[in-house]
TrEMBL record:
InterPro entries reported for this sequence: CheY-like_superfamily, NreC/VraR/RcsB-like_REC, Sig_transdc_resp-reg_C-effctor, Sig_transdc_resp-reg_receiver, Tscrpt_reg_LuxR_C, WalR-like
Residue spans crossing the bilayer: none
Name the record gives this protein: Response regulator transcription factor
SUPFAM superfamilies in UniProt: C-terminal effector domain of the bipartite response regulators, CheY-like
Gene3D superfamilies: 3.40.50.2300
Length: 221
């Protein structure tokens, strides 16, 4: 199936460059471009995008609030948001993940990595750049903030807690399977069940839950 991508960035050159790249890839199409967060929300609804590549710093409505509105809209259930960030300086990335983003992308990423990121996040299979993502979450979850409105890990089985710990440390399904002596399909099933039990949209929120509940401590490995 074709992945319908919406690009949201206040820099025209950035949007156009990303648009050319996405349109050149098989199985993807750009269904719209937004220069503000408010426009991103409106176009996501109007164009029925599958995934939004969202800048954080935009006029009118920033990327975090735009992400929050998309995630809260029942009519947009299933729409994924991939955040654009400068990584080292953008301390808002965790708030974006809390708001419902499924992962993040560094703005100076390689073209092939952008396309891989879109495929990965659209599939909901794994959190993008799990190692850096986990380190970033560890860093900024040290600061008090409202927790994600999902259930806690006390509703999980012992095995599911083991899997959640590994998800929070940045492992994908294949790596989790190897670590616990499971098949990749079983690992994926555990992750899916945890999402259902915790009310989490995706793996990004599983990571947040693991840290905010204390199941995984910042800095642990």
């Amino acid at each position: 199936m074709t992945i319908r991508v919406l690009l949201a960035d206040d820099q025209t050159l950035v949007r156009e460059a990303f648009a050319l790249l996405v349109e050149s890839a098989p199985g993807m199409e750009v269904v719209g471009q937004a220069a503000t967060g408010r426009e991103a929300v409106e176009l996501t609804r109007a164009r029925r995008a599958d995934l939004v590549v969202m800048d954080i710093r935009m006029p009118d409505l920033d990327g975090i609030e735009a992400t929050r509105r998309i995630a809260a809209d029942d009519d947009l259930a299933g729409v994924k948001v991939l955040i654009l960030t400068t990584y080292d300086t953008d301390e808002n990335i965790v708030e974006a993940l809390r708001a419902g983003a499924s992962g993040f992308l560094v703005k100076d990423t390689r073209p092939a990595d952008l396309l891989d990121a879109i495929r990965t996040v659209a599939a909901g299979d794994a959190l993008l750049s799990p190692g850096p993502t986990a380190r970033l979450i560890e860093r900024f979850l040290r600061n008090p903030a409202p927790p994600v409105a999902v259930a806690g890990p006390e509703c999980l089985s012992c095995r599911e807690r083991e899997v959640l710990t590994l998800v929070a440390r940045g492992l994908n399904n294949t790596e989790i399977a190897e670590a616990l002596g499971l098949s990749p399909l079983t690992a994926k099933t555990h992750v899916s069940r945890m999402m259902g039990k915790l009310g989490a949209r995706d793996r990004a929120q599983l990571v947040i839950v693991a840290y905010e509940s204390g199941l995984v401590a910042p800095g642990s490995r």
